[in-house]
Amino acid sequence: MTLNKTEKTLKSFIIDDHISIEGAVEVTVELQNGQRRWCFFITPESLSKVGDYIPQTNVRIHLGVSHMIVVSQLDKTIIEKTLQLIDTEGGLERHTVLLS
Question: Pairing between strand 52-53 and 60-61?
Answer without folding.
Answer: antiparallel
